[in-house]
């Protein structure tokens, strides 16, 4: 069963906003550890999922599927960001 269009639109919006958040990050000195940055990113993902949870439409099962897709997409966006941060730490 396909996701409702309204939920697809919310997922797309959430991904764009999350990507903008990641692109705004400036790595400074002193840096946080790689583990701490991974925790921060995980918290950001949870924040976005909880924010969009309130806006999802449809029955509970539809909302749960849409939120899981959003979480997967945000986690996928965070992988290159964390790799970039890891490279930054190695360059110090």
UniProtKB/TrEMBL annotation:
Gene3D superfamilies: AHSP (1.20.58.420). GO terms for molecular function: hemoglobin binding. One of its GO terms (cellular component) is cytoplasm. Coiled coil: none annotated. GO terms for biological process: erythrocyte differentiation; protein folding; protein stabilization. It is found in: Cytoplasm. Pfam families: AHSP. InterPro entries: A_Hb_stabilising_prot, AHSP_sf. Keywords: Chaperone, Cytoplasm. Belongs to the AHSP family. Monomer. Forms a heterodimer with free alpha-hemoglobin. Does not bind beta-hemoglobin nor alpha(2)beta(2) hemoglobin A. This is Alpha-hemoglobin-stabilizing protein. It comes from Cnephaeus nilssonii.
